[in-house]
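Worked example 2:
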Amino acid sequence: MKLIGIILLAILTGSMFTSNGQSFYSIRRDRNTILSIGTGTSTYLGELQNPGDYFDAKPNLNVGLQYFLSKRISARAEITWFQLSGTDAKANDDRRERNLSFQSNNYELNIAGLVSLFPNGQRFYQRTFFNVYGFAGVGAMFMNPKTVFNGEKIALQPLQTEGVSYSRFQPVIPLGLGLRIKQGPFFNINIEGGYRMTFTDYLDDISVRRYVDPTTLSSDLARSLADRRVEYFTSIGETFTPTPNVGVRGNPEKKDGYFILNVKLEYYLPYDFSIGKGLSRKRSGNNIRYKKYKPGRRR
């Protein structure tokens, strides 16, 4: 986490030094490209979630680059680190007996198209004070669900606790809305929320409805983590004998998902970083001198 923070701070600081200060010419120049950094919360939506409980926030951190194709349409690439977790210990029904839990560090890379409600001018004085936008795109995420067993974090995917092999790399579809607030010639503050539609039911390592036959699993550790009801009943002083195909473990009819809520700082990169370039110029210190046109001289 500290390394990621240092990298993002270095990127932002370096970009600010290349912006030619807050000069008159810098403000007037067209700016089509935005660098953003953000942080906020990530919320897991799956089998270990209580009905009606839609906000069990864990941290996230992201960095992105956005380019305006027109005054209202832009394209953006983002990478996000985020955490997810869920546990039956917080359940308000009989799911506490199931006694399953997970936590994971995840990474997402996505490319999205954004459409703004109001035209976004390429110069400071052309931008509205606030703007609303929607976005949709495609992406991929890496997940690695783990659980705590005997005081140690155990990765669940290699154990195949349901007798199913699944990939830790999964496609996602990000969908959401955002509010952009102008904070001067070079900066915006963004508040953005987005749901991630996934195509997997294994963000939490839980999917099949019934417990599998433990004799079909690969190891004693896999058997212990596939059915943790014994631990629960032992903790309350009761005995319990697991029976294959008895009891509800998951719900394969609904895919898992997650929601990301962020506050972002956006910085308009100098025009030099965009696709085209303006007038030919030379820099001397913090000043800009434009070349004078000489009649009769070919360019």
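Confidence is low (pLDDT under 50) at residues 10-25, 278-293. The chain is about 10% helix and 40% strand.
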